[in-house]
Write a structure and sequence with these properties.
This protein has 736 residues and is an alpha+beta fold. Helices cover 21% and strands 31% of the residues.
Length: 736
């Protein structure tokens, strides 16, 4: 009886403790589902470098194609150690009919392999090996190898062209493991991938959008103009701003897409995108609408037709509020890809339905998997010593990490490691944030979960790096690829990276705070009552600058200055225009670092810069200030004394490389497009989450903890009742 009671109490206490343990445990190894074991030979075409063929030095003949796209490497890549893999991504457009693909790789070999040391390069396309060749030292001179890429292995969207190097270094006594991490070959920045293609017959399908308005044939958008009616309404401007922001992401090196009123229609640009209410369409566009022969309900109509030697896409609606529905459909790849005809009807409320159904990407919800970020089932690390891979985060500029960030890595690794010295490390950018020692017992199925440390909260990083130090015993002269140590990180490994609040406003962090995590962040764009042609152009330019990788499902609005409730509207603001035509700029003048003087004729000096009168009348300024009426909001004022000054912003920002120089909270552009940047805003302490915000951010964990605590209490009461009953029975037996 005593034994039964003791076992029962022990079991009750054990059950009582178990929930509290589970509440803090994240996916024990036995609960992790992983793929089949990694195949090392999939990543080594010639495991023995001595048997690899000589490199192809002569460019092979290629078939004729209408167009050729060159993807330049742009930076040198160094291969280190016994075995290393490096990848380069290039994009095949959905409107291409690829005729051929070819890589021209220029490389320089280190003297470390001068004495006929066996070495080879192997090339892959989307993880499929396509070619391998031997590598020799040739007095440090650059060498070239041509690698034909089978077009049947290319896929629509991003493709990875990867190179692996395999080498062993020797001296008179044998292998030199001291050189196992040495730089032995450098891939030159002049290397490139060339794709010859014809333009596919798209048959007027909207699913090809943004083709043919913007394409690889016109990569700067010089042949495209976005049109809105003269004296466009706020809703027409809103839809145009969204589409201009999206199309700015399709240009390269320069962005020459114009935004004008319909007064210029037919006089500029080969291709056109018209955004207008139905009763404000030009005659040609209205005729095309009538030719659809359809009766539409509440919503937007998007249609495409040929005009002259170009193409026109129209976004229209009877109710101007539905124009943004058409814009959102075109901006959403998943939705526009479904439109296989030359016209589409978008019902009113469609965008809200998308949001309510939570079909936004996991990225916007602040959680993402490795598979979602890399489009790969997992990441392989092959070879001894230090192996690292960067996972680039598709967050737009200005993203800063909030509190409560978590990382969960699911992995496995070879069992031939020296487990006293092998470990895995995770980096936030270049900052190490956590490490885990590898163990023999978990080699087939391991996991690592941790919270992001507080010292990286409020900081920005473009990537997370995962690194393995794979040390093995008796490495000396290990030549076979199948003896290589390896590690594999599963594609369902997860990053939870909540967006935080930066204490700094800086144009170098654009589009933050006007866009966060790919969504417009409660943005209000305030324009003059009557806009000049220059201001329409500037309006479009600011959309492109703040629309980097933007989703259509954020919150943004456009206001005429006379309608904007400055003191009560809780929004981040972009205000454009001059002192004379934008009353909000006049209201904010006292808050500006460089204030307007002489009734807006010029800017005045301040304690950091003395402005000459002529210079002050000709410059344009971008100035970020803190919202005087709404805590935590920012205002960007883009202004000049006249249209000539305002045009400087468009001229400067049209060249992509120029935009990289934006910095500080105040930025000056002069008539020679020379710039100056200043910082006037005081850096505030980083904001911490309130208890309510923390509970909301971790509501699942809180709920689970409450349930676990309740279960603990019930089990505790149960154990107590068992003890009391046992004691009562003992007392009754004694009385007998």
């Amino acid at each position: 009886m005593k034994f039964y009671v003791i076992v029962s109490v022990f079991f009750a206490i054990l059950c009582m403790l178990t929930p509290s343990v589970i509440a803090f445990q994240v996916d024990s190894p036995e609960n992790i589902t992983t793929e089949e074991p990694v195949s090392i030979t999939n990543y080594v075409l010639s495991s023995d470098p001595e048997s690899a063929e000589e490199p192809q030095r002569v460019r092979p003949e290629t078939p004729e194609s209408q167009h050729v796209q060159i993807f330049k490497y742009s930076q040198n890549i160094v291969l280190q150690g016994i075995f290393e893999k490096t990848g380069y991504f290039f994009k095949v457009q959905k409107y291409w009919d690829s005729i051929y693909a070819l890589a021209q790789i220029e490389y320089t070999v280190s003297p470390l392999i001068a004495d006929d040391v066996p070495a080879s390069l192997t090339f892959f396309i989307n993880d499929q090996p396509i070619y391998s060749c031997a590598v020799h030292y040739e007095d440090g001179a650059p060498q070239i190898v041509y690698v034909p890429i089978p077009t049947e292995l290319l896929k629509e969207g991003f493709n990875e062209f990867a190179i692996t190097g395999y080498v062993r270094l020797y001296d008179e006594d044998g292998c030199l493991d001291d050189f196992s991490g040495a730089n032995w070959i450098s891939i030159s920045a002049s290397s490139f991938i060339e794709v010859g293609y014809d333009l596919a017959e798209f048959g007027g399908k909207l699913s090809y959008y943004p083709y043919p308005l913007v394409s690889s044939v016109d990569q700067i958008g010089a042949e495209l103009t976005i049109f809105v009616p003269s004296s466009a309404t706020e809703e027409e401007l809103r839809a145009a701003f969204m589409l201009r922001a999206d199309l700015g992401n399709e240009t390269t090196t320069e962005d020459r897409i114009a935004l004008q009123t319909l007064a210029h229609y037919g006089r500029s640009g080969k291709n056109a995108l018209i955004v207008a209410q139905l009763d404000r369409l030009p005659a040609e566009a209205r005729e095309q609408y009538n030719s659809l022969g359809q009766s539409f309900g509440e919503g937007a109509v998007v249609y495409e037709y040929e005009s002259g030697d170009g193409y026109v896409i129209v976004v229209t609606a009877s109710d101007e509020k539905d124009l943004s529905e058409g814009a959102a459909m075109l901006m959403d790849d998943d939705r526009v890809s479904q439109e296989k005809y030359s016209w589409a009807f978008v019902p009113s409320g469609s965008a809200q339905t998308v949001v309510q159904n939570s079909t936004l990407s996991a990225l916007i919800a602040n959680g993402e998997t490795i598979k979602g970020l890399t489009n790969q089932d997992g990441i392989n690390f092959i070879g001894p010593f230090h192996q690292a891979t960067n996972i680039y985060l598709p967050f737009s500029g200005g993203f800063v990490l909030g509190e409560g960030g978590k990382v969960e890595i699911k992995m496995r690794y070879s069992d031939n490691l020296d487990f006293d010295r092998s470990l895995m490390t995770v980096y936030w950018g270049s900052t190490p944030v956590a490490s885990k020692k590898l163990t023999m017992e978990n080699a087939d199925n391991d996991s690592f979960s941790f919270l992001m440390p507080s010292d990286v909260v409020g900081t920005h990083a473009d990537s997370i790096m995962i690194a393995f130090d794979l040390e093995i015993q008796e490495l000396y002269c290990t030549k076979r690829a199948d003896q290589m140590p390896w590690a594999y990180v599963s594609g369902d490994s997860t990053f939870y990276l909540p967006s935080g609040v930066s204490s700094t406003y800086d144009l170098g962090l654009r589009p933050y705070p006007f866009q966060v995590l790919g969504l417009f962040n409660n943005l209000a764009v305030v324009v003059p009552e009557e806009m000049s042609d220059t201001e329409y152009t500037l309006f479009g330019r600011l959309a492109a600058l703040m629309g980097t990788n933007v989703s259509p499902y954020g919150t943004m609005s456009v206001w005429r200055a006379g309608n904007y409730p400055l003191e009560t509207e809780n929004a981040n603001m972009i205000v454009l225009g001059t002192w004379h035509d934008n009353s909000v700029i006049r209201s904010l003048n006292d808050q500006l670092s460089f204030k307007f003087e002489d009734e807006g004729a010029r800017f005045g000096s301040n304690d950091q810069l003395l402005l000459s009168p002529r210079y002050a009348a000709e410059i344009s300024l971008l100035q970020i200030i803190r919202h005087p009426y709404q805590d935590g909001r920012a205002i960007l004022v883009v202004s000049g004394a006249d249209d000539n000054a305002l045009s400087l912003v468009d001229r400067f920002s049209a060249v992509q490389s120029n935009t990289w120089s934006f910095g500080g909270d105040t930025f000056i552009i002069d008539s020679d497009l020379e710039t100056k940047s200043f910082r006037f805003l005081e850096v505030l302490p980083a904001q911490r989450l309130t208890l309510q915000e923390r509970l909301a951010q971790h509501q699942d964990a809180v709920l689970f903890t409450l349930i676990s605590t309740s279960a603990m209490l019930i089990l505790f009461v149960g154990a107590l009742l068992i003890l009391l009953r046992y004691r009562r029975n003992v007392n009754e037996e004694r009385k007998k």
